[in-house]
Amino acid sequence: MGKTRILILGGTTEARQLAEALAARADLDVVLSLAGRTVDPAPQPVAVRSGGFGGAEGLSRYLVDEAIDLLIDATHPFAARISANAAEAATLSGISAFALRRPAWLPVEGDRWRSVQTVSKAIAALGPTPRHVLLAIGRQEAHYANAAPIHHYWVRSVDPVEPPLTAPNVTYIHSKGPFRLADELVMLRHHRIDVIVTKNSGGSATYAKIEAARKLGIEVIMIERAPVADMPAVKTVQDALRRIDHLAPSLMKRGV
Hints:
Blueprint lengths: L3 E6 L3 H11 L4 E7 L12 E4 L4 H11 L4 E4 L6 H14 L2 E5 L12 E4 L2 H6 L7 E5 L15 E6 L12 E5 L6 H10 L4 E5 L8 H9 L2 E5 L9 E2 L2 H19 L1
Helix pairs in contact: 1-7, 2-3, 5-6
């Protein structure tokens, strides 16, 4: 009897944790797909495929050509296009699929959140008075800050922002989570940050800035998630493992 072939669309902590949990299983053959945007990605515990597929149709062809039995969308909560392609590809190919999506953060007492739907609206929400802004949205969309050059931005990302912003007052912070509350408090105080622009990514790795903002009374402009693709979803790696175990017998029967 052959192995069950699983393709994980990754790039998140949860994707790596899931791959680690599945790597040692003799009944599975796991491939982790990464977008290839990170300059120096961490070593992975399973075979890695890097780069795009060519939309939903390209991904569907890959699933069929590589005899994939199960597709797991464990991409970033803001990778809406990839998630939509994954859902469509699963339908086109007839392959079983589900998503691993961490829950969004929810405001608690003491938070000063202003919710917006896009990065451009978040920049506009900074207003007409110069502010000290921690821009923690990753490097891909940092250029939206060029539309409001009156502010001083501290742009935090794993890799350098290319090309650099044209706004005159920009400081780049290259660092990778998880971040500690104590360090976030020091950073926010040191730079006199008065507003944070971030995405509602969920999870624990970058939540410390939200907690630090609450303690310091700093406003957070929160970019909320777009509606998710229509695909069955679980919230944790443990839930994903249980779902795989539940699906495995039917997947193996189909692969015989």
